[in-house]
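User: Hi! Is it possible to get a structure for several chains at once, not just one? Here's what I have:
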Amino acid sequence: MQTLNMLLETALDDSLVIAGRRFTSRLMTGTGKYRTFEEMRQSIAASECEIVTVAVRRVQTQAPGHEGLADALDWSKIWMLPNTAGCQTADEAIRVARLGREMAKLLGQEDNNFVKLEVIPDAKYLLPDPIGTLEAAEQLVKEGFAVLPYINADPILAKRLEEAGCATVMPLGSPIGSGQGIKNAANIQIIIENATIPVVVDAGIGTPSEAAQAMEMGADALLINTAIAQAANAPAMARAMHLAHQAGRLAYQSGRIPVKAYASASSPLTGTITS
Amino acid sequence: MQTLNMLLETALDDSLVIAGRRFTSRLMTGTGKYRTFEEMRQSIAASECEIVTVAVRRVQTQAPGHEGLADALDWSKIWMLPNTAGCQTADEAIRVARLGREMAKLLGQEDNNFVKLEVIPDAKYLLPDPIGTLEAAEQLVKEGFAVLPYINADPILAKRLEEAGCATVMPLGSPIGSGQGIKNAANIQIIIENATIPVVVDAGIGTPSEAAQAMEMGADALLINTAIAQAANAPAMARAMHLAHQAGRLAYQSGRIPVKAYASASSPLTGTITS
Amino acid sequence: MQTLNMLLETALDDSLVIAGRRFTSRLMTGTGKYRTFEEMRQSIAASECEIVTVAVRRVQTQAPGHEGLADALDWSKIWMLPNTAGCQTADEAIRVARLGREMAKLLGQEDNNFVKLEVIPDAKYLLPDPIGTLEAAEQLVKEGFAVLPYINADPILAKRLEEAGCATVMPLGSPIGSGQGIKNAANIQIIIENATIPVVVDAGIGTPSEAAQAMEMGADALLINTAIAQAANAPAMARAMHLAHQAGRLAYQSGRIPVKAYASASSPLTGTITS
Amino acid sequence: MQTLNMLLETALDDSLVIAGRRFTSRLMTGTGKYRTFEEMRQSIAASECEIVTVAVRRVQTQAPGHEGLADALDWSKIWMLPNTAGCQTADEAIRVARLGREMAKLLGQEDNNFVKLEVIPDAKYLLPDPIGTLEAAEQLVKEGFAVLPYINADPILAKRLEEAGCATVMPLGSPIGSGQGIKNAANIQIIIENATIPVVVDAGIGTPSEAAQAMEMGADALLINTAIAQAANAPAMARAMHLAHQAGRLAYQSGRIPVKAYASASSPLTGTITS
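Assistant: Yes, the chains can be modeled jointly so their relative placement is included. Here is the combined structure:
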């Protein structure tokens, strides 16, 4: 029987590998929507995240809240995941991905070729374009990027992106920032069953229970931003998400009990009262 | 702004008080259904539980798996919660509660007057009898017990038990051992809103995500037994439940984001591409 | 094989029997909350209901919308179900039930001994008191009433009311008028499995799909009032509820396909293309 | 106020228009998986469907259950919807669509240019390929087909198919034949909100309540095959689906009550007891 020590050792071993790079945490977060840099720094620390996504366009244009972002975090400890938020077409996304690679180099991450690919023509739901995303992914893979595409939870699209050489797929649970939770669970489950690359559930998670649920389903990692940054107490929620994603991962490895239609006594009724 | 240190201090302060007694952990577990005593001990350690429930009748009758149970745990560190499992009527439960008090005394817990009250006439679903439970609770309160009644999630019954002087109410999420999760969420929410005594969600939780969900709803504590004891790796699942219940509590205190019908960009699209 | 004609004949045969009285429709409605008597009459006609519940206290006191209610419906065609809405204790409910019987007699229903028993101490959620309800039911059964008690979805309470001689049980799906749908499905399912008297799902249904769902679960009948009376077009919604409750009943009798984890082709792929 | 007669007249007016062709029923069905032709005929009659889909490849190859299918139904009354089931690529689907048009002509539907476009590379979940589907749709629209593409519930893909000139979009609720119901409700809702062509929910519906739910969400039509053909009593289930889809449509037009967190009395408590 496995002892508690063995259990903890196993947990230490359970790393996430993306494009050959090894990470201990399976929780990623972002830099958007925090009220202050200080709150952002505390939240990222509390989350124990190693991967943090940054909107290249916003840094480039020094959009509000992004002036000085490059200096606000210690990039020797955090792996930057540049994203192409704000791009409506494959072409735009490809250009912004290249800018992102330059940005990572300037911050000292010479070998960082990661890009979170977002091709989002829709301003209301911020849902990604499957056609444009596949097109951009194919080009960026050719250019040597490790591509992490943000997609609707479409299992066939996920498989095609994997075949195109993407490093992960990032299906959405529900629209970005909506906090609706995992609305596409059936499709995400199919994606997980069929993927040989990591599946990162991205967008829609609002609570730790939803974070745990995604990990229990077998997701390899999560990206959570709004639910942390906009919580009343952002660092505390970051901590809660860290704990919950660990709990979900551990449960996935621990073999949950089957769901039964009927009850099953914790204390079987074999005894008789003798008083 | 609250710093991470302040956050951790607050967390330390956040204790559960039942009948005047203070507990750090909000997760309770049981002793039933483990494969071995060793696995039980490891799981209870991994769960960091302080309250462990024991079926008085099974100890009394030395039912299988209960011989030597009294010696298997260190009762100087764990608070025993004797339960009346196996009792079908108020009278039976009252008698078994008294036995439980004796048992606690024998194990060195002189001032332990806790009893988890179960009056369960139904062998298939193991659902409690509201009438018999209220009747037994009234009597046991008179006799000085701290009564923690196991009930169906009926808000009016919960209120009547509170008025009768119970120390907590323990509504069930779904039938014992079924692992169906929180099926009565709407009623449990109403119970939580109206209670001035701790609400402990008991029975039905199968996964850490469900544990977190109950705590996010504002439950004061959880009792989880089968989902831990019968998991493929019981100590690892115990740890997962510990992490998840903490995550849910922290989220409850941290103010989750509202659920929105539409998306809300993590990286607002105010920038323009300049490449 | 059953022909369509045989099917329709079977449907004609499928009557609801409560306390020895036979009804063709399995949908009941009420008289509260309509904007006008004319809309009420049209809605009741469109619903094809045979049983309509009336709040005895409101008629007695000529509360707004209840003046003239007795004359507004044709009681030679509709079976009145007097209810004890507004009663907070068993005693009040017993007295109002007796008044209801008188009221039915005055309207020409000499042999109508039905009463919808509501004992509701709670003004916010309008949830029933299990203890008071059982107490009043026992008394009213002794006095010869056909008692239809409104209850929280508690299977043990339902069984005790059946044993006390009630004519039906009426578990709530969710709080009255909330339109939340069937929130207590797991418990209602257990009640249905165990009952030998009709189970009438009462309160909470907001849409035809929820009405159909309850009937598919095997409920014997439904009581729907607010979802009809307060719909933008009440008579049209009444018709929709009629159709949906029939659909659900028919589906219950027709044997639904099992839910499968995987797909199963409608048009199996045994052919090959020959073009 | 609208009278019942006015209501029924409105209902008669509420026709479904696809590619300029008008249909009274909003329920479509198929010919696959029936146990006998007789049962199929009775079920289609009971469903009151006007559009029935047929797998072109299976007719072409005289696959089991498809010999004589052409003669088994009265095609002067039923509009044939040829489908491309069994096609894994855009090219295959285009060829089969052309065969389908010939088949419709042979059966006397000279002007029938409808095709249900299925491009399904996956044998386990039978999920459609978004890229291949768009490609085939663009070609078939050029060739003058009224294209009804079967798609995963991806709002951006749906919009692109609409822009490509498709006659409808047919998002799936859950995998074909799985009977899991509407698992992609959030995405289907977004598709409905944004479409200017009819949205037909296709695949996954297992029960009348799920059929009603899709119509209440505002779907313009449904395609249901397995849930009818494989029900224990297929004609009765067909009837149930007909009733339920009507109920859902009527409810969509009737303005449902809002969902409330709290109760709202059907019989407000303004009266006082006077006994």
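The longest strand of chain D covers residues 146-151. Residues 11-254 of chain D form a domain with the TIM Barrel fold (CATH 3.20.20.70).

User: Great, thank you!
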